[in-house]
Amino acid sequence: AIIVYRLPWTWKCSKLLMKFIHAGLNTIAMILAIVSMVAVFEFHNASNIPNMYSLHSWIGLTAVIFYSLQLFLGFAVFLLPFAPVPLREALMPIHVYSGLTIFATVIATALMGITEKLIFSLKNPAYSTSPPEATFVNCLGLLLVIFGALILWMASRPHWKRPPEENAKLLRPIGGTPEGTEEESTVTDGSNTDKSDMRINSEAARKNLKLDEAGQRSTM
Fold first, then answer.
1. 85 Cβ partners below 8 Å, 6+ apart?
2. Confidence (pTM)
3. CA 146, CA 126: separation in Å to the nearest integer?
4. Nearest 10 degrees: CA dihedral of 43, 46, 49, 50?
5. Looking at residue 141, what DSSP letter applies?
6. What pLDDT, in 10s, does the model give residues 37-77?
7. Is 111 in contact with 144 (CB distance < 8 Å)?
8. Residue 99 is part of a domain; what is its CATH number?
9. Is residue 120 part of a domain?
10. Among 162, 160, 167, which Cα is nearest to 209's?
11. Do residues 220 and 165 make contact, with C-beta atoms less than 8 angstroms apart?
12. Pair 33, 69: CB distance under 8 Å
């Protein structure tokens, strides 16, 4: 969901479609997180295991709570068309930063969780003797770190950012033509009024693009 805007082969797709894909992937992840948490609490209760006593559980629950808030605010501000542009501009840096922070927190929670499970589960042979199970899960943890690092790298590189000119069609006024297109160049000298209207529309489109840039781009 984080890198859906960062893949070059998606840049030719409409921005609205990518917004729905971004929101849909995050919604699926949120549903899976809730199902997982319910399963964990039911397992603990059935096995008479205390709940919420480890750092893994504290950070995990915190990540889920903030993720739900991030998803709700993302829907309300960036997906629905009711939020004013100044609000989008103010919340976009927070939205991006909090999304990346939540993602990094989830990676850390997963690493703590698999380590905790190994320590509690491997008794004979013990975890400290590096049995095959321990080696396998430790390699899984390294892969999680590499995966997280790659996603954060892609999300922070400017050249992976969706080009802003791809948003011109979304912001272009009805009947207007972006500056420098073939339609504008074919207007004859006798239609000065049409030329003037076209320039006004182009200036309005550029102004709208600048004002709504924060609301039209998203990393998370």
1. 211, 212, 214, 215
2. 0.71
3. 27
4. 90
5. H
6. 999 999 999 999 999 999 999 999 999 999 999 999 999 99
7. yes
8. 1.20.120.1770
9. yes
10. 167
11. no
12. no
